[in-house]
Amino acid sequence: MAGISFYWGLGLESSLITGTIRVGIQLSILGAILQPIFTYGAKHWWIVLIYVLFMITLASFEASARSRYVFDGMIPCVFASFVISIATTSAFAFGILLEVSPFWNPQYVIPIIGMLLGNGINGVALALNTFLNAVVSDATAEIELCLAYGGTFREASALMTQQAVRVSAMPMLNSMAVIGLISIPGMMTGQILGGSNVVEAARYQMLICYLIGATAFGTILAAVVVCLYVAFDSQNHRLRLERFSKR
């Protein structure tokens, strides 16, 4: 691939080589880290909690890093959005649906939360970038005009909020539309290759898809709401562009 990129002058050689090396190194490190966590985590819940919070922290940095505009406290806000959404869906999944024992069993908790975060990062990144671009740059004049005519900050930002949620949810919805028809998801493929019953693997994959959808949508909504209240003075209905800076 790097050779093709060089031949066509795409300038992606460095990124392709770096990405290939990082995949090998990161997965090797992951295997070395998870082995002791799986061994001791079933007895000590705090080990699993620390690793899950570490995963959410990395996801928050990654999702925030793709936005063109930033504001103070952006990463903690994204972190809180992930925590609220992950905690809600995980409590329902592990406590009611899967009935995992113990509740924090790392064999279930870490892989599933990893999948939820991996799919949620793109949605949150798209939501942040779309909403902040619209409010700070693309639609500033329209927002100011609406506010000048007596509109509330929610009315002035309604179209931008809707657009941000739609754009960020679209990849997830497209994936859900073709799953099982065109593509066989990775978790189901792994279970089938591991010798699991196909019907049971399909049921587990259905559960994961629903959890991914709920978590991603919840995190997207939380992130957009946070950005909305950062961008506007909710009491005086004023746009606060000074709170943002260009990356």
TrEMBL record:
Alphabetic keyword roster: Membrane, Transmembrane, Transmembrane helix
Membrane topology term: Multi-pass membrane protein
Annotated transmembrane regions: 44-61, 73-96, 108-128, 164-184, 204-232
Location in the cell: Membrane
Keyword Transmembrane helix: yes
Primary location recorded for the protein, binned into one broad class: membrane
UniProt entry tagged with the keyword Transit peptide: no
Assigned GO CC terms: plasma membrane
PANTHER family registered for this protein in UniProt: PROTEIN ALUMINUM SENSITIVE 3, UPF0014 INNER MEMBRANE PROTEIN YBBM-RELATED
Family statement drawn from the similarity comment of this UniProt entry: Belongs to the UPF0014 family.
Protein name in the entry: Uncharacterized protein
UniProt source species: Phaeodactylum tricornutum
